[in-house]
What we know:
By secondary structure, the protein is mostly helical. The protein has helices spanning 34-40, 42-49, 68-78, 89-101, 105-116, 124-136, 140-155, 176-183, 193-208, 258-264, 287-297, 309-321, 327-338, 343-353, 356-369, 384-402, 408-416, 418-425, 437-445, 466-500, and strands at 20-23, 29-32, 61-63, 244-247, 253-256, 280-282. It is 50% helix and 4% strand. A hairpin with a 5-residue loop joins strand 4 (244-247) and strand 5 (253-256). Helix 3 (68-78) crosses helix 4 (89-101), helix 4 runs antiparallel to helix 5 and helix 8 crosses helix 16 (384-402).
Amino acid sequence: MTFSDVVVESPFASGDEGDVVLRTSDGKSFHVFKNILSLVSPVFRDMFGLVQLGDVQQLPVVDIPEDSYVINCLLRICYPVANPTFSTPEEIDACLRVAHKYDMEHCTRCLGDALENFSLCVGIDVMTIAFAVSCRWDIDNIAQRCASGLAYRITKPALPTAGPLRAASPMSTAHPGQMAAAFYQKSLADTPAGSFHRLLRVGYAVATDSYAVPVVCSKTYCSPEGPREAIPFLPPKRRSRPDLVVKSCDGISFDAHRDVVVKASNMLEGTDALAPGSGSVNIALDSTILAPLLHLCYSRCTFYAELRPMHAETVYLMALRFRVARAQDFMVKWLHADMPSNPTRVYLIAARLGFEDVAREAALVATRRNTVFVYDEQMEYTETRHYVALLEYSYAYQEAFLKGVADKKRVEAARNGWEAVCNVLGADDDEGPTEGVEEALAFVQAGMKPTRNPKKTPPSRSGKGTVTRSRSKKLQAAKNSSKQKDKSNRVKQALISLRKVKLSFAA
């Protein structure tokens, strides 16, 4: 984003007001004192230590990739002059990005105070951007305030003129996909999905009770996965013995075949291992990452079940870095192995890594099990746009299924008891997208009660009423045939609608 052009003014305009020059990406020069910036930023302190003095008549120049607007704002916060004023949250976001880059804690605090003004805005668009900025830079108190303000403005735009003020809003029973559509804006696209999940929970809390004081928007810090498990590695038996020792940065050595590693990856490029007579090589990787990579070089993926999510993702990213041939095959197998236990987690990982086919499978399973709104720590590492796509897909799937229900009362009952419907619908989610639909529709038509086989009436031994019973049987058979035909049509309609539901990945 480009901001207004900046005219360099005092105290940064002349050489008498500094001992070093910061030259921005748009060619503006700021004369500053190294001591001031060194006190504010350890990054600048180290940078100035590397500056070589040239002509004593000229000040040393340090080129930086940031534009003049951001640098001017940060310098005015550091110097004893009036702080800059901001007209939009985007300007603060740009300054926070650079302040974090240069580790300028004082600037970060001041920018947080400036962002607080936008958390009190009336406009939903501006408040949403302020919420996105506060979530992006972990300013929890402002995120909480913006979330509450957005929840009141979106779920209850006007207080009731009559009746109890605590009356629930219609959105209190809305599907998470509907709630997501009401809250989502493009400014939230790259924020953590965990923040958006907490925002929706605030929305539900306020929609249920106008006087609610929701606190669920406070960031839930992820519990660490714990130490990575060591993966043993022994090269498979071949005619030739291992001729290379690969050493990890934590001191673990692995025997390997040089030709296999060279053929399957570029791990040895730029090392002494390719030189004649070299028998060992040091790789700057932990043994818990290096061992799986060596397994992949030998086309072995049987170890994937032992890896936790972040461990598996790190192995995959390192495999891509070293161009290991089996990298994608390994990650797809790990995702499929984890899908039965946690389809929502698999969707989040697959979506952010670009495995769209796996993400579609996981989205279907998570939808049929009704777990799309269950929090998972992978939301903290996935962008909101991917999570919103999952919620919208889940809502579209529900609506497509309900097209096969006969009357409005049963449709409403199925919406309110969707979890019970999913218990029937998701029982066969390993079979395909349309399996279990007929059973779930029968469950809804039966009043959300388990269907039972009707009891057979024993035939009468007397001969009385034979003609009447015969006519009754024919009428009942015709009625059952009509019901069966209607049921078959409704199932077909639901199946057609469900096949049309597609998961769209936002750009």
